[in-house]
Structures are given as C-alpha cells and as structure tokens.
Design brief:
The protein is an alpha/beta fold. The protein contains 13 helices and 14 strands.
C-alpha cells in the first residue's frame, strides 16, 4: 500500500496494473477502516490499492457537529474528489452518510458489519448505572445525549469533538466518562477501554453504525474493480442497513437527529425497530415491525424497505416529528443532494447478487 493526497497523488508503477486509489480521511480511525477495506479489495482484485487522504470541513472546524449541519460534513470533500476523478473509490462510516443519493455516485459494496453498539468508557470501571450523581459525560451525538438523559437525568452531558484518542484522554482529565461506538474502538485496537457495552434494546445506535460503505462513480466501467467489490459485499449487512437508513429517510431527518434504529435478521425474519427522542430525553417514541424474507436479493431489499416504511409511518403517526423537530435536523443532509430518494445512498448497487464476503469481521 502506498499513500498519497488528493492534491499530490503518488505516481502509479508502470510495470504492473494501475493501483486502485482509495480516498479516505486522515484520522486514525478513517485510515484504519480504509486500510482494512484496501487489503480486502487488493486481494479480491489482484492489484495494488493506495490510500489517498482528503481533508474535510469536519476535520478542520472544531464547532459542534450539529452546528456544522451533521456528520455529512465528513463526506462532502471525499465525494468531490471521487467525482473529480482524483480517487476511484471511497470508504465511509455508513452512519456518517446523508441518506439522499449523491449525483453521479453509488455504493459499490457494503462489507460485513462490525459491532453496532455504543460503549461507555468511564473512570474506575463505572457503568451508566454506577456513575456518580452529576457525573460529566462527553458525547457529540444528540441521540446519545437524549439516551443518557432518558436513563440518568442527573448527568451533566457535555458536547465534545475530537478523535477517539482525544476523547479517551478526557476521561482521565475533565470528564467522568464518554460514549463512543464499539466499532470505532475496535478498529483502532482500543475496545478494552470500554467499561460497558450498551444493549441495543434500550440504547439503539445510529442507523448504519458499525457498517462501512464503499462508494464509486455510477458510471464506473473498471470491470476488475466492480468484480472485486462484489466479492467484498455482504448481503445481510446491506439488508439491515438499508432498512435502518430507510427509516431515517422516511422521517426526513438528518443523520445528526436524535434517532436510534436497529435491524436484525434471525431465521429469515427481519425485525426493524426505531426510536425518536425529545432532545432532552424526557420523551421518546418507539416502533417495531417484522417480515419474513423470501425470494431474490432484490425481493428481500424491497421487503426491508417496506418494513422500514411501516416503522417510520407509525413513528410519524405518534408525533415523532414534533417531538424531535425532525424537519430542522435534515438541513444540510438533504440540501446538497437530490430530493425524493427512497432507497438511501445509492443502495441499488451493481451486482448485489454476486459472491459475498462471508469472512468474519471483528469490531470496528
């Protein structure tokens, strides 16, 4: 693997196949998860893959994610580089992608999902239940703020930014605990720092959390690359994240909205559950629906969308939009893209019925 920047890409070797240029943010976590995909893509394609780092506004602006317009700020610069032909593929944390499709781009593969749960990292091995009264807990997620307040109204929840190492260091400094994604900690080898894994039943995580999206140009014609993407695709993961993100799309909410969603497949039964919170955690609405999966891969995806639509419809009927002011949370997530989507970010990927990557993926 070689490394370059979008401004100064490395020169491909002339005595072998051209490398696949994989765009990534420069953070430790982004590079770790991009390298994992790069290794698998290189093996599947039989050609080298080089990482090309791209800097986004979310990397340079220290304002809160909510004020910047949500986690979509991390994707914009990467997508611009892909459209411009500076890179061939991108790797995103799927939970950070706006649900609206980006013109000219599609999701070429969704590898097997890592742990979708959140974790607490606290002093003295504390759990949410055993944190001292008034403890300071850091998170940059409105969903996690609402969940913490719903369970422990006495907690002092502090808005924080920064990479994982920076956040972990604050637990030994000015905070009693932080809440992070299990997948992210796992991908950088720090999952042992967690003092509690938060159960998805009471603590549903962000739609798509733990999953990665490999994005390509819609008109990509590199047959070797397309075949390699089919090999690292994991159909069950695409099914569950499609359902979770469809709930978000139908609620017309941004990816920074206080919404948790969980989809699971068990014995050919798909269960989709979602919760919308009042920002202060004082109220929330939950809806769950299920369906039997049958037929082709496209039939199963269509069923996932249908179940998700029923979940979103029930939430809206029960006042979820007013509870969390969902229309304002959608702001920049939808403004920069085409409206009227239903499936999510290009989840009509080419070749979803091709061979899947069935190898186990450890935590993110």
């Amino acid at each position: 693997m070689t490394e370059a920047t979008a401004d100064h890409p490395s020169t491909p070797a002339t005595d072998g196949p051209a490398p696949i240029r994989l765009g990534t943010r420069a953070s430790r976590l982004a590079v770790a998860q991009s390298q994992d995909v790069a290794d698998r893509l290189a093996k599947a394609a039989g050609r080298p893959v080089e990482l090309v780092t791209v800097t986004s506004e979310g990397d340079t602006n220290r304002a809160s994610l909510a004020s910047l317009g949500g986690t979509g700020v991390f994707a914009s610069a990467l997508r611009e580089a892909l459209v411009a032909g500076e890179v061939d593929v991108l790797v995103h944390s799927l939970k950070d992608l706006p649900t609206a499709p980006y013109p000219g781009l599609t999701i070429g593969a969704v590898p097997k999902r890592a742990d979708a749960r959140d974790v607490l990292v606290a002093r003295n091995g504390a759990t949410v239940e055993t944190l001292p009264e008034g403890a300071k807990v850091g998170t940059g997620s409105p969903r996690r703020v609402a969940q913490l307040k719903a369970d422990r109204p006495d907690l002092d929840v502090v808005d924080i930014r920064g990479n994982i190492d920076t956040r972990l260091a604050r637990v030994e400094d000015d905070l009693d605990a932080v809440v992070l994604a299990a997948a992210g900690l796992g991908r950088i080898g720090r999952l042992d720092a967690a003092t509690e894994l938060l159960d998805l039943g009471f603590w549903p995580s962000a739609p798509g959390q733990g999953a990665l999206a490999v994005e390509i140009r819609t008109d990509e014609d590199d047959r070797n690359l397309l075949a390699a993407l089919r090999k690292i695709e994991h159909a069950p993961t695409r099914l569950t994240v499609t359902a979770e993100r469809e709930v978000l799309a139908k609620l017309e909410a941004g990816c920074s909205a206080p919404i948790g969603a969980t989809a699971v497949v068990d014995a050919e039964m798909l269960l989709v559950s979602a919760t919308v919170y009042r920002p202060d955690g004082s109220e929330y609405r939950t809806a769950s629906h299920a369906a039997v999966l049958d037929g082709s891969a496209q039939d199963r995806l269509d069923e996932a969308l249908s179940v998700a639509d029923r979940v979103a419809a029930e939430l809206l009927e029960n006042g979820a939009a007013e509870l969390a002011d969902l229309s304002n949370s959608a702001g920049s997530d939808s403004a920069e893209h085409d409206a009227g989507h239903t499936v999510g970010p290009g989840l009509d990927t080419p070749g979803t019925e091709g061979p899947s990557d069935t190898s186990a993926t450890t935590t993110e």
